[in-house]
Amino acid sequence: MAALSAATLVTEAGIRSGSLNTAGHAAQLGRALGAVPGPITSAASAGCHRLIREYFASLVTSPSDACELVGLDLAVEAPGTQVNSRGNRNGPIDADSSPGGTAGGPQRSPIMHRRILDALPLRGARGLDAIVQLAGVAPRDAREALAELELLGLIEKRERPDSYEHQWAFCRAGRERRG
Predict the structure, then answer these.
(1) Torsion sign across C-alpha atoms 87, 89, 94, 98
(2) How does pLDDT run across 116-151, given as a tens digit for each residue?
(3) pTM of the model
(4) Beta strands in 14-64 (DSSP E)
(5) Model confidence at 108, in pLDDT bands (50, 70, 90)?
(6) DSSP secondary structure string, 129-152?
(7) 62 — alpha (psi -120 to 50), left (phi > 0) or beta?
(8) pLDDT by residue (tens digit) across 44-63?
(9) Do the Cβ atoms of 35 and 59 come closer than 8 Å?
(10) Which residues of 146-178 are buried (b: 16+ CB within 10 A; e: fewer)?
(11) Of 64, 55, 61, which Cα lies nearest the Cα of 47?
(12) Are residues 126 and 137 in contact, defined by beta-carbon separation less than 8 angstroms?
């Protein structure tokens, strides 16, 4: 399991839990490791506390912490509330705060961006037809949202060597955007 994911998040683990074994494999593979600890009085939380104390697992206390663990820069905590990568709430979403919007121009719904982002794989890339199908949106809407998300630096367009079709993927952490 550890090899199939970008990160391992342990939510509850006793001191001799199989989850700790998976966390150890993730650490050996250089994967991000996080833990959601419970009360210090709970035996079911002892493993998470040990991961944080001895193996320097990241402390995860919110959805934005989990997004940060896997390298996502965008998180949404509750409907109608924007949350940046530091977990700070930016208040209600309105038409003027929509990403990619311009004064007097058409405003892209953050919900459309979320649907497109949800249609992308965490690893690898996906073509327009698959994104349209998974997101349940029209091809034109998908192309517009993909362009906006690319300009925002959240995703990147990749060339396929075997065809003229482009694919889109999340930007890799620590990699500068191509100009």
Answers:
(1) negative
(2) 998 999 888 999 999 999 888 889 989 999 988 888
(3) 0.42
(4) 32-35, 58-59
(5) low
(6) HHHHHHHT--HHHHHHHHHHHHHT
(7) beta
(8) 889 999 888 888 888 988 88
(9) yes
(10) bebbeeeebbbeeeeeeeeeebbbbbeeeeeee
(11) 55
(12) no
Give which of 60, 72, 73, 12 is closest to 33, Cα–Cα. Answer: 60
Q: What are 92's two structure tokens?
A: 């209600």
Query: Cα angle vertex 142, ends 106, 154, to 5°?
Result: 85
Distance, C-alpha 69 to centroid of its chain: 8
Tokens standing for 48? 């998470």
Residue 168 — φ and ψ, nearest 5°?
-120, 150
Contact, 108 vs 100, CB < 8 A? yes
Calpha distance 68→65 (Å, rounded): 5
**Tokens encoding 137:** 């949106």
- Enter the tokens of residue 66: 């989990």
Q: Are strands 166-170 and 155-159 parallel, antiparallel or unpaired?
A: antiparallel
Measured distance CA(1)–CA(73) in Å, rounded: 24
DSSP assigned state of 4: G
